[in-house]
Amino acid sequence: MIVEMRNGAPKDEIDAVTDKARSLGLNVQLNLGTDKVVVALLGSNTGLIPTDQFAVLPGVESVTRIMKPYKLASREFKRADTIVSVGGIDIGTNRIVIMAGPCAVESEEQLTEAARVVKTSGASILRGGAFKPRTSPFSFQGLKKSGLELLDKTRKSFGLPVITEVVDAHDVDMMSDYVDILQVGSRNMQNYSLLTHLGKTRRPVLLKRGFACTITEWLTAADYLLSEGNEQVILCERGIRTFEDSTRFSLDISSIPVIKKASHLPLVVDPSHAAGHYSLVPALAKAAIAAGADGLLIEMHPDPRKALVDGIQSLSPSDFIRLMEELKPVAAAVGRTL
Ligand code: PEP
Ligand code: MN
User: Would you say residue 126 lies in a domain?
Assistant: First the structure.
């Protein structure tokens, strides 16, 4: 349930609402806007409590029952777009943010070359996996700690923020020293203990959509991060599993306008894992920008033929640089900059 206070409601009126909520066994989260305060009442039994219990209190402008299971990620709770700031880069503004780099960190040379291409092409964030959650335990699992050390070294020498995937709740604090954004992979979107740990950090988190999850489940998972107090949450659409097998996953373009309407959180799109083939990535990247995405997460490898992971869907440096140019008029056509 969302309680909207009148403009300038004094503290005692807000306290009356929060006291009432707590007396009913509800948790409370406040959104302190510039003009007005919005109070989210959280609890499994909010559906059973009459809205009048709050509507009658002084200073309450409206009480809205939210039938959707997600609350804090909703536009009802926060109308204004959330902007996530990472090392001077704002995600969720008019400017589209491009994150790119190899699927996995493989060596210093590989990461340095990827960072050089990211930097010179005008992209803003370097990606690279150090812990790789692979379908088979016999596949390359990533360089782990030494991969993190390479990400840290590279971000310092290039002045580029870095993003990497975290797979274990116990690693969250340790990894926060090495990277700027912690990525939750598709397979972990519903790993609630990982999400709870990430909610307690103040590091930005990029939450990928589970490939078999609905938008509602995805936004409800985002509430796990937000309810622990971490407001630096970025969503990432990366394709879902459908009956169609001509691509690795089906990029759900519709999720972009749906999310932009339903949630205040910034949304980036990963065309690489959806496409599964480098030749399809540019078209999906352009479609994502045209549909309203706030950014892209793209796999790019200095030499895709030698990549240890996901080479087939990785763009070469020259293809990536070309795509960066091709994205500019698409962004301009929808009133955005790159
Ligand atoms: C990745 O970004 O390298 C990755 C493993 O993606 P996903 O979790 O979307 O499969
Ligand atoms: Mn990958």
Answer: yes
Range of the domain at 99: 84-333
Ligand nearest to the CA of 307: 2
Nearest partner of 8 among 33, 35, 44, 27, judged by Cα = 35
Residues, Cβ < 5 Å to ion ligand 2: 103, 310
248 CA → ligand 1 middle, Å: 12
d(CA 150, CA 148): 5
C-alpha triplet 268, 302, 141: angle, nearest 5° = 70
The answer to whether residues 52 and 143 belong to one domain is no
Q: Of all protein residues, whose CA lies closest to atom 3 belonging to ligand 1? A: 103
The values of phi and psi at residue 95, to 5°, are: -90, 125
Tokens representing residue 188 in the block: 């972990």
- Is residue 23 within 8 Å of 60, Cβ to Cβ? no
pLDDT digits (tens, 9 = 90+) for 159-172: 999 999 999 999 99
In a domain, 73, yes or no: no
Look at residue 37 in the predicted model and tell me its pLDDT: 94
Q: How far is the CA of 73 from the centre of ligand 2 (A)?
A: 27
The model's pTM: 0.90
Q: Which ligand is nearest to the CA of 304?
A: 2
Residue 77 forms part of a structural domain: no
Q: Check if 129 has its Cβ closer than 6 Å to any atom of ligand 1.
A: yes
